[in-house]
Amino acid sequence: MFWRLFLTYLLLVVAAVGLVGLLIFQRAEDVFFDLVRDVAAAVGLVVLAAVGAAFVLARRFAGPLIELSEGARKLAEGDLGHKIRVTGGTEHAELAETFNTMSGRLADTFHILEHDREQLRAILSGMVEGVIAIDGKRRVLFANERAGHLLEFDPKKAVNEQLIDVTRLAAFHTVVEKGLATAEPHREEFDVPGPAARHLAVYVSRFPGHGTPGAVVVVHDTTEVRLAERMRQDFVANASHELKTPLAVIKSNVEALIDGAAEDPDARAAFLDQVAREADRLADLIKDMLSLSKIESGSLTLAPQPVALGRAITDCVERHHSRADAKTLTMVEKPPSDVTGEVTAWADPDALRQVMDNLVDNAIKYTPNGGRITVRWGATADTVSFEVEDTGVGIPDADVNRVFERFYRVDKARGREAGSTGLGLSIVKHLVQAMRGQVRVNSKVGKGTTFRVTLPRAGSA
């Protein structure tokens, strides 16, 4: 720009001098040559002065424009907020001020956009759902950590890659294609096979625009929801069956009594005895269901306090002694030999009593006549523990991990015959966990079972 302006100014001067010379030449040719000889030196000086003047004027006018051009280049390269200082006329100063204002506003706008972008990225990264954004060519624009975890890929390496190259899950791509084919949001669920089977729900929503502008894909792991739903259905089915069985027995006995058995003293006593047993079983079942419901809903309030473990175990054994004697079972207490003084647990007394009663009751039910039940306890610096060991029928390895499930029985027929509700061990597990403890089971078929409960020790909780 500078050289164009310089040559323009110089051309104007040369043109003016040439025009004057041409006019003189046309008016008097002989005078023109005499004049050229006389003023040649002066004309040379004028031309040199014109060159200098043209240079100064061109530089003065083009300098601010060059500065503006350089500022615009830096702005385009990302130097937002770049300011320029222009010296010159009022027009140049106003242009520079306008440029600086525009540069500042652009810097503020881009700062806000970057801040919003980082906030959005942080929000998406912290979501429990997986989020993937793709363009119309199925290239990944964004993917959060959760999406990478659910679909097994590295989100940082996935950007700008084809979605088909990021994850090979065929069912997922089928859902995405269905979502891209319609303007309405599309939702579909499918199972992911494997060692740890999962259930995923995928939500596809296209970006607004014509053609195939891309979409945002949200992936949600519904495995736990499905499991909870299945457990709820199983609970309803099992509870209905457990309630139905004693009611059916009671109803059949009452019908027999109505049909004439009430007139026979011996038959009447047998039927009424069976009605009483089934009514007790029904009451126990309802009581256990209510207890479990309170524990699982969190409405059961525990009040932990120091509890003398040895005293609590002795009281429990005494409560069950008559039932053990009826089956000729030997019940033995084994206090710790390596701990001096009282072993004190930090627990809720009523909850601890229920845990002990359920474990000892369970041992009595499943130990054949003439067997042995041993209750031992001990302590470490931070915890106390007690074990209920029996010489009963034992639990197969395949069932050991399921004995704490609601209504689960290893032998359903034997369990009902023994009067088990199928909820006792589930109540034990939930109560122990509520007291910040752990319960474990070890068993061998035909040799017996041992349940071990560990709780915080008073003073260390």
Helix/strand layout:
Layout: H1 2-27, H2 29-76, H3 90-125, E1 130-134, E2 140-143, H4 145-151, H5 155-158, H6 163-166, H7 170-180, E3 186-192, E4 198-206, E5 215-221, H8 223-258, H9 265-297, E6 305-308, H10 309-326, E7 330-334, E8 344-347, H11 349-365, E9 372-379, E10 383-390, H12 397-400, H13 412-417, H14 424-434, E11 438-444, E12 448-456
Parallel strand pairs: 7-9
Antiparallel strand pairs: 1-2, 1-5, 3-4, 4-5, 6-8, 9-10, 10-12, 11-12
Helix pairs in contact: 1-2, 2-3, 8-9, 9-14, 10-11, 11-14
Could you explain the architecture of this structure?
The protein has 461 residues and is an alpha+beta fold. It has 4 domains: 103 residues, no CATH class; 94 residues, PAS domain (Beta-Lactamase, 2-Layer Sandwich), CATH 3.30.450.20; 64 residues, Helix Hairpins; 152 residues, Histidine kinase-like ATPase, C-terminal domain (Heat Shock Protein 90), CATH 3.30.565. 57% of the residues lie in helices and 17% in strands. A 5-stranded antiparallel β-sheet has the order 2-1-5-4-3, with helices on both faces. The longest helix is centred in the first third of the chain and has 48 residues. The chain starts with a helix and ends in a 5-residue tail after the last strand.
Determine the N-to-C terminus distance.
83 Å
Write the CATH homologous superfamily of the largest domain: Histidine kinase-like ATPase, C-terminal domain
Sheet-strand content, in percent, reads 15-25%
**Radius of gyration from CA coordinates:** 46 Å
Number of strands: 12
Provide the succession of SSEs: HHHEEHHHHEEEHHEHEEHEEHHHEE
Mean pLDDT: 78
Number of domains: 4
Oligomer: single chain
The CATH architecture of the largest domain can be given as 2-Layer Sandwich
Q: What is the fold-level CATH name, i.e. the topology of the largest domain?
A: Heat Shock Protein 90
* Contiguous helical run count: 14
Strand order of the largest sheet: 2-1-5-4-3
**Which sheet architecture does the biggest sheet show?**
5 strands, antiparallel
The helix fraction, in percent, is 55-70%
Supply the CATH class of the largest domain: Alpha Beta
Secondary-structure-derived class = alpha+beta
What low-confidence regions span 5 or more consecutive residues with pLDDT below 50? 413-419
Q: Rough shape?
A: elongated
